[in-house]
Design a protein that fits this description.
Layout (H helix, E strand, L loop, with lengths): L9 H13 L3 H12 L3 H21 L2 H19 L10 E6 L7 H11 L3 E6 L13 H6 L26 H19 L2 E5 L5 E3 L11 E5 L7 H13 L4 E4 L23 E5 L2 E3 L5 H4 L3 E2 L2 H9 L3 E4 L3 H5 L16 H8 L3 E8 L5 E5 L1 H5 L5 H10 L19 E4 L6 E4 L3 E2 L8 H9 L4
Parallel strand pairs: 1-2, 3-14, 5-10, 5-11, 6-9, 6-10
Antiparallel strand pairs: 2-7, 3-4, 7-8, 11-14, 11-15, 12-13
Length: 446
Amino acid sequence: EGSSQSLPTPYSVIGGIALSVMVPDSTQYRNIFDIVSRTNAGELQDVVTAMRDAFGILADNLPAKVIEHRVGQWCHVGSQIVNPRLHKLNVPTLFIGGDEDNMLPTKEEGDRLVNIMPNCTRLMVKDGGHFILDDRFNLTSAIIDAPFDPFNQKRNEKKYDPISDWVTPSNEAIYEAVDSRVKLLRDLFSPKFFSTGSDGKRKFGLGKVPTPDGPLLFVANHQLIGLDLGMIIAELLVKRGIAARGLAHPMVFQGGNGFGGGAGPTGPPRRVSKVNKEGPVDPPPGDFQTFGAVMVSPKNYYRLMATGQTGLLFPGGVREVFHGKGEDYELFWPEKADFVRVAARFNATIVPISAVGAADSANILLDPEELLNLPFGLGDRLKNSSEGTISARFDQNNADERFVPPLVVPSVPARHYFVFGKPFDTSTVDHSDRGACAQLVWRGEV
């Protein structure tokens, strides 16, 4: 069955055709087709000769009797011995496979090993077939970037600090996000922005928004469903170069979606994804993280102000985003005004933002309260789900925060208006005076 100048054997031809169908992925198929299609008549003989030699290589290196032995006897017996021992292999393991493998159930096998082995990470290569070690995949980088540390390179790595280590995204990243996510909202709602100077005079655009040397805090009402966030962040970045860091609900970091109001991946999708028993490993940062959002907490807010950064706070939070019928544009801010006290401690400048338009662009069919009262156990399910959601406020239980979005249907889109109010300098405020700080809020200074 060895290769020679004679015609290839039936096994070589059938086996070669089968492998040629199952091994390449779609990209490799296109590359092969491009090579063949560019072949002229004079080179055709060389192509045919190469194919004949390839058939011979299969017969020489993987004879039919070897295949019969491995599939019929070796594979079954070996699996019976290995499988019961996999759960005991507590060593760092990296499983690499392509999601277009047509020869073996690679994705399913990767999931199986992750579930069985104590310390296994599955690395799946998007658009990769059975043969993934081509010029598109770097095996060395995959090993170096694995969760384990084979070359002792990560032992002394400093853990990323979202407060101090974050950097403003590049112009390319900003415009990519604006063009692919925010532009749709802009086209739909035609937002208009106004700003107010220290003299109280209002102007179209954000020209009067201050850029102080110290910390800056934007305090805004949150509109229905929360789609206004991306428009505010984008306008500040593009028009004024101000990177306002949103203080976002913990749920956002558990899987929202998109710069328009969530945490979907930024930029083009990665070709490689990693998963272990705990879930995704080194997932690509979402738009929230890329554009500086941090989980809302007293500590994170304090550190933003202490380091002289710019924050964007929605004191009404989920209650305003998921408001009920007849509650359009109502403020549901907490009675405590501790955010003013922290701002005053560091002499921050506070700029209030008033926004309208979202509630006029949708009709609420069922508000959260009505949804919680649905029959047949539906309301109870929503209540249990809401109580299982981490509260954004440290001084209340999860059950106290109603994380139930209303059932809405869109209406004719209304123009959105954003008014940046008169800046307030907190350097004249005694941060230890709780009453005075609270009065700033309820008198309308903030």
